[in-house]
Amino acid sequence: SKMGLSAAAGGGYGTLPRSDPPATGGRKAGLRRVAGMVGLSAVVLCALIVVAATQLHRAPELLSKDADLDAQYLGAEAKGEGGKEFLQRLQRMWFVMEHKGQSGLASEASKLATNMQIASFPDDVKSAINTDVNPCEDFYEFACGKWDKENLHSIPKFQTSWALSWDAAEEKVVDKMISVLEKDDGPAGTYFRACTDVDRIEKEGGKPMDPWFKLIDGIHDHASLVDGVVELNKGGLDHLFSWYIDTDTLDNTKHAFFLAESGGSFPDQSYYTDESAEMKEHRAKFLDRVTHFFTLIGRDKPAEEAQMVLAFETATAAIMQDHTEAYKSHAQKSSWEEMQKLVPSWPWEQWLTKLSECTEPFNGLPKLCTKDHEAVKMVGKPGGRPLYINNRVYFEKLDKLLHDQPLDAIKAKMRWNVVKDSAASLSEAFQDSLLVWYKDLYGVQEKSKRPRKCYYSTTSSVGWATAQLYANKLFNKANIGAAKSMLDNIRGEFRQSIPHADWMSEESRKAAQGKLAAMFFEVGIPTDKEGAVDWPERAEALVGKLGGDYYRNGEVSTRVGIERSFSKLTQTVKRRSWGGSTPLEVNAFYGPESNGLWIPAGILQEPFFDSSHSDAQNYGSVGTILGHEMSHAFDDDGSQYDAEGRLRDWWDAETVKGFKQRSQCISGVFDKYQVMGKHVNGRLTLGEDIADAGGLKFSYRALTASPRTAAEKRLFFTAFAQ
To answer: Which residues are CB-contacts of 10 (< 8 A; sequence separation ≥ 6)?
Structure first.
C-alpha cells in the first residue's frame, strides 16, 4: 500500500505505487521520482564513502582476489551498531526500489545485504546458498538454492533422490567402509567378498532358487500348502500373512507373538486400485516384469502366471487396512480360538506347531537349532506368551480370499515372492530385469557399482559385525560426549516449556516432566545403563558360519535371525536394545515402548556434526534432529505411552482433548501442502510434523540459553534448512 511504502521509506524516498501515474500532475510525479532516485543515490554514495573511509588504510589488501578476505571484510562491515544501521539502509533501498519497479537496484541492495549477513558463515554452509534470493521471501531457495541448481540434474543414476546433508554423510560412511570390508577377515568381510565374486554368481545364474521352486511345485493340497508356507516363513518370507516377535503391547518387560497383514509388491494399495493412467502404467510394467522373471526361471506359461500374481496381490490389497488407520492402530490381544473363527480355512495351531519345530532345512543349509522351540509352540496357550493381532480388518476378510483364489494362483504368488526376494543376489540377467521394474517404479536409472551394492548387502545381512568395524576403526568417539551435552541442554529447554503448556492439567504436566526425566539416551554405540560399551551377541552371531557362496550366505544370515527371534520370546526385554537398527545408520530414533532415544554413530559426523563446528551450526543441524526425536515422545503416537513405555491413558481427558485440538492445527496445515499436484496426508505425517516443530524450537532455545549474536542465529536456521 502507499501508506506502507511511505512508512517503510521513512517518508524520504517517494510514495508512488508501481503503476503509471495519472496524466494530470505527471510532470510533478516524474520530478518526485527523479528526486527519489537522486536521494537514493546520495544515500548509497554516502554509505560507500563511509565504508571507504573506514577501510581506506586497508584498501590495497582488500582489493586482492582472496575470497577469505572478502568474507572478513563484509563480516566486519556487518558488525556493531554501524553495521546494523547500514544493513537497515540496504533493506530500505531494496524495499523502495522493488516497489518502484527498479528491480536491478533492488536486487543489488538485497544481494549486498545478504552477503554481509552470511560473511561469517563457514564455507560449507555458504557453498549451498543462493545469494540472489532474499531469505525473507523464500528461505528454502536462499539456504539451498545454489546447491539445488548445481545438483538438480546430477542425481546419481543408481539413486532415486539426492540430499545435501543426508547423502553427504552416507557417502562418507560407504566410501570408508568399503576399504575396511575389503581387508576384514571376520563375517562382514567374508560376506562382502562373496558378494563381489561376480564370476561365481554369474556361473550360478538362477540355480540357487531351484530348491524353493521344487518345494512350491510339490504343493498339491491344503496340508502341503501349510508345510510350504512354514518353510517360507523360516526362510524369512511372508505369505498370506506376516508374523513377528516383539515387545508385549501390554507388558513392555516381556515379548509376545504377533500376526499382521501381508504386503504386496507395490509401495501402496493405491497402485492396485487407482484407475489413473499413471497407476495403470505401473501395473502394466509390473505384469511385463513378472512375465519376464517367470520366463527366466523356465515357467511354461509365464504371462498367465503373472496375471495370477497381479490378481492375487490386487485382491490382497483390497482387504488390507487403510494405511492411515494402520499407522495409528495398535495390536490387540487375541487367541487361536478367535483366529480360527476369523479365518476358519487356515489351521493356525497346526501352522504354529510346524513353525516351532527344529527341522532340517529343505535347501541344504546347516541345521542351526538343536531342539524344538517350546515357547513358540505354547504361544496363546495357558502358561505361554500372549498372541496379538494387528490389522484385524484384514483377517476378517482373509478367509474369503483363500476361498476365492485357486491353488495355482497361491503357488504363483509364492514363486514370485522367492524371485522378488532373490533377484538382487543373482546373476546380471535377474538384476537387469529388476532394474527395468525399478526404473518405472522409483526412477532408478542404473545399478550401483558392485562395491557399493555389496556394502549395502553386507550391512543388511551382517549389520552388527559391520557396525562394530565402523565403531572400532572410523568413528570419532569424542563426538559422543558433545552429543550427550547437546541432548541434556535440549532436554532442559523441553523441561522448562512444560509448565507453560496451558492446555495440560497440572497432573498431566507432572507426568510429562516425569517421562522426560526418565528418557534415556543411547549415543553412538550400544551401552548398558552404567554407560559401559555393550555390544549385542548379534555382532558375533555369524562368526564361522559364512563362506564364498553369496546367495547361501544370505540364507544363513536369515536363518540365524529367525532362530534369534524364536529364542527372544522367553527373554526379558532389553530396554536399551537397538532393535532392527545399528550404530552404522545415518539416522536417529525414538522408541515409545522403551522411552529411549538412539543416536547412531553414523549421523555424528560432518555435515551434521563436528567438534570443529560452531554451536550454532551443530545445534541447527544435528541439534534439531536430537530435538526431533525427543519430541516424538509427545507426538500423536508417543503420547500414548507413559514414562516406562507402557501403553496406557496417562493424560487426563481434558489434556487429551487439548492435544488433539492443537495437533489438528498442524495436520490441517500439512493437508494444504501439495507435492506434484497431490495433497499431503496431514494425519499420516502428523508425528513427523510435530517432531520437526519441537526439534527446531527446543534446539534453538538450547542454543540461545547463552547470549548469541544475530549472525549465530542466522547460521542456526540456515544449517537447519540445509
So the answer is: 92
What are the strands, taking DSSP E only, across 347-463?
Answer: 387-389
What is the amino acid identity at position 219? Answer: I
- The answer to whether the beta carbons of residues 189 and 548 sit under 8 Å apart is no
Residue 5 is predicted with a pLDDT of 24
Kindly provide the residue ranges of all beta strands, DSSP E only, lying in 451-527, ordered along the sequence.
520-524
Give the C-alpha separation, 583 to 523, whole Å.
Answer: 9
* Distance, C-alpha 685 to centroid of its chain: 12
For every residue of 513-559, DSSP letters joined together read HHHHHH-EEEEES-B-TTS-B---GGGGTTTTT--S-HHHHHHHHHH
pLDDT tens figures, 421-456: 999 999 999 999 999 999 999 999 999 999 999 999
Who wins on pLDDT, 87 or 116?
116
Report the alpha-carbon distance of residue 243 to residue 246 in Å, rounded.
10
First to last CA, the chain: 34
Residue 511 CB contacts under 8 Å (≥ 6 apart), including other chains: 642, 643, 650, 651
Over residues 211-235, the pLDDT tens digits come to 999 999 999 999 999 999 999 999 9
8 A C-beta contact, residue 348 and residue 403: no
Contacts of 594 (CB under 8 A, 6+ apart): 252, 520, 573, 575, 576, 577, 645
Q: For residue 351, what is its C-alpha cell?
A: 501352522
Would you tell me how many other CB atoms lie within 10 Å of the CB of residue 85? Answer: 11
Q: Are 458 and 553 in contact (CB under 8 A)?
A: no
DSSP state of 659: H
Contacts of 2 (CB under 8 A, 6+ apart): 15, 16, 17
Contact (CB, 8 A) for 141 and 434? no
Q: Model confidence over 144-189: pLDDT tens digits?
A: 999 999 998 889 999 999 999 999 999 999 999 999 999 999 999 9
What is the b/e burial string over 306-321, where b = at least 16 CB atoms within 10 angstroms of the residue's CB?
A: bbbbbbbbbbbbebbb
